[in-house]
Fold Metallophosphoesterase.
Amino acid sequence: MIPFRFIHTADLHLDSKFTGMKGLSDTLRQHLRDSTFTALRHLMTLAIEKQVDFMVISGDIYDAADSSLRAHLSLQDAFEELGRHGIHIYLIHGNHDPLDGPRLQIKNAEHVHVFGAEIESYIARRRGDQQEVAVISGISYPTSKVTENTAMKFQRDPESHLFHIAIHHANVDGDPGHETYSPCTRKQLEASGYDYWALGHIHQRRVIQESPHIVYAGNIQGRSVKETGPKGCYVVDVLEDSSLHMNFHELDSVRWFREEISIEGIHNEDEWRIRVEDKVDAIRRLRPEEMSIVRWIMTGRSSLHRELEKGHVVSELEQELRRRELARAESGHFGGLVWSESISLQSGIEIDRNDMMREDSFLGEMIRLEVQAEQDDALAKELVEKALAPLMSNREIRRIIGEYSEQERQEWLYRAGELGAVLLLDKAADGGRN
Ligand SMILES: [Mn+2]
């Protein structure tokens, strides 16, 4: 086999809006808006530095079907630059940027291959000597919702000895965190005879299996607290003996974190504030060149929880942490900037739940139910649904609730349990005094 090198990338989501972020200044909001474009620039630089033979992009290039002019022009520039280096691009459209979207067409260029709504195949060549190295097949989303199993349309050319790459935007094995578009199974992909499935749609990168390779590259820039950790692409080397080497490269310019901080052993606000500030500094040291966004999650049990539960203590620290970063941003420094997205409570009061569980009281009853729900997903789901039912008749609230995962909704249940415990204990204490 003739050795060659390519980049597998997906889900660029150019010009993502980063809505729902609180407290940002215009400068910071702009920096976030720029991040998907910065990641695109990193991608281009990497392709040229690594002298790849071609690049495959597995859908969701644009964030929205009616892509912005800026997204379109940036992509156009990027592709022209790759063209000057003789790097070909093979791309499909996904559920966010389907073919029927009101979109500007990419200028006709010989080195850009956009797949249509029916399966197509191209022969890819090596950049220098133009030797044929791979068959690349792909299919784009004609509309935003593709519910049929289009993976079944990929069939290896039995006559060809070239390396076979399939580009697909699909939900393999029904990942519950994403829409089940182009549903298919790992077994079906394996049976198709392709050597490398370059997948898009799931934003968390993952090598599902090797030889044949079935790979999600993940997105190139995290866009919410659900998309934490490094984001980037794979540089794939196919060697003479047809073995394969993959290297992940970070491309993101803003990175998301979920950091847990235990309040165990902390009994006053000052100690707590210092512990949070230490964590902020630790992330600053970790990423001195780039901006980070963090959701701080309080865990553990201590007497401090009561204070935090009052709300203003938490929001004051949130605002103070943000104020410092806003000052940094105004001076034009985004390196080492640590933005606190929010402080979220998963901590609890210092009670012995085992003791309380035996209590013949409303509180005891509530804790027994909570413990039961922790061990029984169906029960937890039922309790959450019952609690949310009165809100569901409002369309707007229903839409907002729909954006939260099952797990997040269950976290509300446990938060409600902790809040209930505080209120009931306070009431009991008051009752005692009267
Ligand atoms: Mn996507």
Remarks:
- The chain has three domains: 4-250, 254-350, 353-434.
- The pocket of manganese (II) ion is lined by residues 11, 13, 60, 94, 96, 201, 203 (CB under 6 Å).
